Write the structure tokens for this entry.
Amino acid sequence: MFNKLERISSLYYLAPLFFIILACIWAYAPGLQGGYYFDDPANIVENNLLHIDSLQPAELWQAMWSGQASHLKRPVSMLTFAINYYYFGLDPGAMKIVNLLIHIFNGLALLYLIRIFIKNSAQKYQEPKLLAITSLVVVACWLLHPINLTSVLYVVQRMTSLAALFTILSILCYSLGRQAQLNSSGNWMLILIACPFFGLIALLCKENAVLIPYFILCIELFIFKFCATSKSAQNTIKALVLLSVTIPIALLIAYFTINAGTLAAWHAPRDFTMNERLLTEARVLVWYMQMIVAPNISSMGLLIDEFQLSTSLFQPLSTFLSILFITSLIGTAYVCRKTLPLLSLGISWFFAGHLLESTFIPLELVFEHRNYLPSVGIILAVVALLDFAFKFIQRFKMLRIILPAFWIIAFSFATHGRAEHWESPLSLALIDVENHPTSSRTNVMAGLVYTQAALNAKSENDKLAYAEQADKYFLTAIELDKTGFSSSIGRIVILYLLNKPIEIEYFDTLVDNLENGRVGPSTQSSLLSLIECNIERVCKLPEKYLVSLIEAVLRNPLLPTKDKGSLMVQLGRYYAESLANLDKAEELVKEAIKMDKSTIRYRLPLANWQILNGKYEEAQIQLNIMKQLDTLNMNAYDISKWESFLNDRRKNNNS
């Protein structure tokens, strides 16, 4: 397909690639032995279904479907976590090393893809050396860019990088097929089979793979331009792209038409409306672009919540200016589609990559990892623009080498510096508080890290010192956001550790706010962690405080049904495992089952407690119901395990 001088194995690629990969390993090395952060514990550390003892198909299958991040469960990502656990246990270093390898593989696949874009664009380079340099600069910048760090060192974001890997492979297959069509009769197998195959795997890693058709549309508009060797092939390509782009939109419209009120329900736990989110995201997108072109690591962070909410087009004024800037960029992409197609592709690629996570879905407003694939577009656009400019600045040829080299070196050191902050949960929490002192959530994270240190302290003096630090951060968080509950919940634990009385008025106010205020995902996560901490007998919070907090949230009318069920089951675990009150535990889980009779994960603990309580017939009924519900055998391993436990108990009772 390519002549000898142009092959990917050419020395033009191998030697620079070797040093780029070494630089990538060096940049990330300080953070590879760091701990688990934010959502990592809930998804990996506390997810017992991932902690497999063998590679038996039934156990692997169950681990695959143990994800709770979405309706699709992200089974391919969960499978990789389970295999990681089987070979290396819960060592976070092993998890992060695999993440880094995925990141490097993504860079190699991107190199091949970018090379195809350049070869088939109006800015194509006939000279292999120039083609290699340009594509290597784009990939080196992307591999070493600090904005991609969270997709590597934040373990659970393997979901993002793994989905990106199969997304790139899907687009690569499509692009190779289209390139073949421009040169001969084409390769429909790559387009019709390989592209959808890798796309499906990507979708089973994370849902943003649904954007593959929109990336392909951008490629067609600015690179291949729907050209083909025959009219029939051209019409077929147009029909395929049109269908792949419109079908997801049609399905989305149909879903929200049938399920009227769903969007409003999704936004209910959030402190912003859909309109406010859409307006704010315009400013967020501009901030992302700023961080990609000229990253400032002191502005970055795991949690970024200082963004002022946009309440109208002109409040704040930067909302209107951001929308104007975005509109001008899209206009530029259109105007330059013939003269600078790589610039147009890069701009459109960035916005296509944000269609899902930066629009109407009520996710957190800002997360760096959302730029993992979209950032490729901005980097490509800048490189294409610089390359175009250098053609008119013949007197300063050295700039063609100096500027890209400066960019790559700067990114390397910035990523290395950020990775040093990720050496431990404590170092990350402290640097994030230093960089974002007015962020309530970064102060909460610092408080939680010190709380964990206090709980693990070996001496009373250390415990008190850590607890005092935690209390300081929780108080700051409360002052910054009086409607946030995570800080208040954490402070109750700290007051107990410090042997300080929990003021009745303070506690009653918290209970009232939990019962009537907005209870977001972070509050629910804090309560679930609090219950788990007491079940493990680490926190040892008095029953009256813990139960009052949970029951207050359960009475909240804004709490979604599925979240209410999860809290009830977890509270049931507390009654069963900490208070040995199996009857109360059973009562709570039965209430949760009434809310969602199709959820197997509610019935598993119920069957367990019924067996322990000697209610063998009732437990057998639950196991039989689970078998009927488990049509895909996602829970077959656990059901079989509890059936064996039930039979053993019966035998012991009869003997």
In short: Residues 1-6 have pLDDT under 50 and may be disordered. Residues 92-119 form the longest helix (28 residues). The two ends are 74 Å apart (CA to CA). The CA atoms of residues 99 and 158 lie 6 Å apart.
